[in-house]
User: Which sequence fits this backbone?
């Protein structure tokens, strides 16, 4: 075991993993995290604690991860290169490890121009590939980036994201290989709506043998309405939402019926994605709709979550 | 070349409030080439400021001059007599020129008329593109001659990120203009050169101590010093 996290144990036991996303509030109200943690505890194996997601300031991911853990939800702490240099990223991971946080997700981070402080200086001292390698070296070689020894190394389960729908498509599986070479243990993909394209990407991933080297979690976002589907299609960077999905959402009445349709699509997609060879789990990103997660997980036949020792 | 844009007139007027004797100083090198702060632009700005003052019924003395290069002492000597006549100098040079003026003419109140913005390449007439970040550790040999430090919005060393779409960056410029994805360009170039293997190498963290992160830089060429 690299970290002994629940997520790592689930994978080690050969179980299909389920993770969700838990977004901290734009305030000092830690109870928001406590409530979300209680909602998701036992429903998923672990949950991503986002780090100033979409470059909007929020309660920090380390403290939120700690609050989640205290309330029964295993955190996957996100860490972006946008807001920290290599000193801060190493200091924060030592702090996180000291708090018992074991899963880390290495991200370059959304560009600051998308957020609420576009005037901020983007750090980008490292990129996500370099961050993965730095953390792997801290864990396995017990060294800081500068080469100095660490007396007590952080025990980490290292994750990252990958977008199968970005361009150049023919490099996407190879870029994942680069992250695997850097030392990543698990990956979560960008939200999948275009399943045929995802399957094509997985074919390339399998051809490179990557599915045997890294745990691949298929990412998906339940749609809350047709408006959201259109917005994601047209305005969210790196998103590939087929017209058929938008039309299917728009075909039902707004409000409750569209929410139900969104959940239904998500369940169908989970079932289909779980059948794809090499997919080891599913990552449900219900943006500010965490309340929908328990129902979706149950309807997909993934409840209760297995207990692993 | 160094590029700069003139500050908005209102900002200049606020800077010059209460100052009635002003020399507008152009620079005939980089900022002249980018049509921002050469002799011609200095003349135009001086006349704009005079017209504004006249409209407000203020009596002012606003003239212009220009140096071949404001960043070199010997060229500043050539305008020294003129500068001595004015307590306030509005420099239209890049940040280097403005500072040279402030250092050389310690008695004058030297103010900036432009915002220096980049090391840019003139792509076509009146269009400049950022091409160099002066990072002090050039990696163009490994990236097909395309700089990821300034041409990738996130300065990725191992791109392209998940925001690359159809050859474009997910980030758009200040006027919503499209930005080519530097890593899509690097990818195409390295493939065309048959250097696919290069794309699979993990580029290690960059040594930013050679950039401005290492503190103000100084270059000395001992061998070129006069004996």
Assistant:
């Amino acid at each position: 075991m690299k970290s002994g996290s629940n997520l790592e144990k689930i994978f080690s036991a050969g179980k299909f993993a389920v993770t969700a996303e838990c977004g901290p509030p734009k305030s000092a109200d830690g109870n928001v995290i406590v409530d979300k943690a209680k909602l998701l505890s036992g429903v998923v194996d672990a949950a991503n604690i986002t780090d100033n997601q979409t470059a909007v300031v929020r309660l920090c991911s380390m403290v939120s991860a700690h609050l989640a853990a205290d309330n029964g939800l295993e955190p996957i702490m996100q860490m972006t290169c946008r807001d920290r240099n290599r000193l801060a990223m190493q200091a924060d991971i030592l702090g996180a490890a000291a708090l018992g946080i074991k899963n880390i997700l290495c991200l370059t981070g959304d560009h600051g121009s998308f957020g609420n402080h576009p005037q901020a200086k983007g750090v980008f001292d490292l990129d996500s590939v370099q961050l993965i390698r730095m953390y792997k070296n801290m864990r396995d070689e017990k060294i800081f980036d500068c080469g100095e020894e660490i007396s007590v190394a952080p025990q980490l389960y290292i994750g990252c994201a990958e977008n199968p729908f970005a361009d150049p498509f023919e490099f996407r599986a190879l870029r994942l290989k680069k992250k695997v070479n850097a030392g990543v243990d698990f990956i979560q993909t960008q939200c999948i709506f275009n399943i045929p394209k995802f399957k094509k990407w997985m074919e390339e991933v399998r051809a490179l043998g990557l599915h045997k080297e890294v745990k691949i979690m298929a990412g998906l976002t339940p749609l809350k309405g047709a408006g959201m589907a259109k917005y994601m299609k047209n305005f969210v960077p790196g998103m590939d939402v087929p017209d058929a999905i938008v039309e299917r959402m728009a075909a039902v009445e707004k409000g409750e019926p569209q929410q139900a349709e969104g959940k239904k699509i998500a369940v169908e997609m989970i079932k289909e994605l779980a059948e794809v060879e090499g997919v080891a789990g599913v990552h449900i990103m219900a943006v500010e709709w965490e309340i929908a997660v328990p129902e979706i997980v149950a309807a997909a036949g993934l409840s209760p979550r297995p207990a692993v020792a | 070349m160094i590029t700069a844009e003139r500050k908005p007139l209102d900002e200049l007027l606020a800077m010059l409030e209460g100052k009635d004797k002003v020399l507008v100083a152009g620079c005939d090198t980089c900022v002249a080439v980018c049509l921002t702060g050469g002799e011609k632009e200095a003349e135009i700005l001086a006349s704009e400021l005079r017209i504004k003052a006249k409209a407000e019924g203020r009596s002012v003395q606003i003239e212009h001059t220009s140096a071949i290069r404001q960043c070199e002492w010997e060229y500043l000597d050539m305008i020294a007599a003129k500068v001595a006549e004015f307590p306030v100098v509005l420099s239209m040079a890049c940040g280097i020129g403005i500072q040279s003026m402030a250092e050389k003419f310690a008695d004058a109140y030297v103010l900036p008329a432009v915002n220096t913005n980049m090391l840019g390449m003139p792509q076509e007439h009146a269009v400049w593109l950022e091409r160099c970040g002066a990072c002090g550790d050039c990696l163009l040999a490994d990236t097909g001659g395309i700089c990821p430090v300034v041409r990738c919005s996130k300065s990725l060393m191992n791109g392209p990120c998940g925001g690359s779409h159809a050859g474009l960056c997910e980030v758009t410029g200040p006027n919503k203009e499209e930005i080519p994805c530097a890593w899509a360009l690097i990818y195409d170039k390295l493939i065309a050169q048959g250097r696919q293997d290069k794309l699979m190498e993990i580029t290690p963290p960059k040594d930013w101590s050679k950039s401005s992160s290492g503190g103000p830089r100084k270059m000395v060429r001992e061998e070129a010093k006069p004996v």
